[in-house]
Amino acid sequence: MSLLKLAWKNIIHNPLNLLLVVMLFALGVGLINFLLTVNEQLKDKFDKNLAGIDMVVGAKGSPLQMILCNMYHIDNPTGNITVKEAKPFLNPRHPLIKKAVPLSLGDSYEGFRIVGTDYSILDIYNAEIGTGNLWKHNLEVSIGKAVADKTGLKIGDTFLSSHGFVQDDDFAHDHAAFKVAGILKETGSVVDQLILTNSATVWEVHEHEEGEEETAAHEGHDHEQDHAGHEHGHEGHDHAGHDHSGHDHSGHDHAGHDHAEPAFNLLDHEDKEITAVLIQFKSRSNFQALNMPRNINQNTDMMAASPAIEINRLYDMIGVGSRALQMLAFLISIVSAISIFISLFNSLKSRKYELALIRVMGGKPANLFTLIILEGIILAVISFVIGILLSHIALWFMANNMSESYKYSFSSWSFGKRELYLFLFSLGIGFLASIIPAWRAYRTDISETLSKI
To answer: CB neighbours of 325 closer than 8 A, spacing ≥ 6?
Structure first.
């Protein structure tokens, strides 16, 4: 009988002891892998959605809340600001600002947020149209890939939005339906979870909700008809239902198609409100740019926040609990190593005659040493496999919960270097825990053991 087969027979000879050792070790390995995977995927999501954005400007409140709401779309807005207040940042000739993206929030469809913006949002997230076209008219939308997959929306489909970010029929807007003009390619960023349209659409929806009178430019139009082929004025201006932040996007090529930005100028509507402005600086080393958030916070009624700073603060807050759980996981692993040691050490007392007979039948001391080491390693491997399986099952449940609550997708069955490192860590634990029992087996005295029979 080979040493490997003999080691396996010895392990399963005491199933209760095997269960105790394996489950304890598996719990430690599984918890470590779970924490490492969650931290890795969260950091990847946060870093990818930073998208080179240097500053977010919005209504005063919590800076972290404003970042989470307008960049990660997992919190509520701190409020709105007027276009007049945001006008300096939307000026295309601003000496410090490379790109400014206006955002108007407030509505959703099946939990996915409807965002009033312009085509510049596609540039910062490297998004491209996959099928169909970008929005051009009021109530036309271009949806992210995840939105299309989860809701089943297709080109030409229509839907009604809900007020707020939770799907509730009691808060549904029923004056007109949105129409899907296009579906974006998957980017792996937050854009996959968004429904994009122009700012005029967001204003129009809420004007109807508040029961405001239609402007003269809208008179004679039937708002229950399909808006995809119609042009709508807004506040006496000819906007053709388009949105534009004041930056010249004409000639920009998205996904190989020439989508000229419409002529609508957001800056002409100073009395209207938007939620926030995402800003990229021309240079991050410019002294004036670095001081801009502080100047805005001190000298205006708006608030400016740096995404990098706020996310680092969030990492610090999350890190305290994460590190505590990691310490607990390593402590469990150490205790499991001790349990393997005790299990193997105690088994030597009942197996001393068996080991002596192996020597009598020609086995060498090295064979006994190897046998005990193999038992420790087999226990570690079994524990590793069960622990990894448990961690990925837990990740699967968490991914489903995160997807339902925040519309964020997490990969629950992805494997990487962390599993390899944990495998080596497990082998090391099994080896170290079995060294002393293996050494005692190596030094087994045949004559002394057999003389006590």
So the answer is: 31, 35
What element of type H or E holds 173?
A: none
pTM: 0.71
Q: For residues 311-330, give the mean pLDDT.
A: 80
Average pLDDT over residues 76-82: 92
The Cα–Cα gap between 312 and 310 comes to 5
Tokens at residue 55, please? 């500053």
Distances (CA, A) of 203 to 263, 269, 275: 18, 11, 12
- Nearest CA to 241 out of 187, 205, 281, 209 is that of 205
Lowest mean pLDDT among 100-104, 111-115, 209-213: 209-213
d(CA 118, CA 450): 88
Give the Cβ contact number of residue 198 at 10 Å. Answer: 30
Residue 304 pairs with which residues in a beta bridge? Answer: 57
Q: Are 107 and 114 in contact (CB under 8 A)?
A: yes
- pLDDT for residue 286: 83
Angle separating helix axes 417-442 and 307-360, nearest 10 degrees: 30
Question: What mean pLDDT is predicted for residues 175-193?
Answer: 89
Averaged confidence pLDDT in the chain: 80
pLDDT in tens, 415-437: 878 889 999 999 998 898 889 88
What per-residue confidence (pLDDT) applies to 213?
41
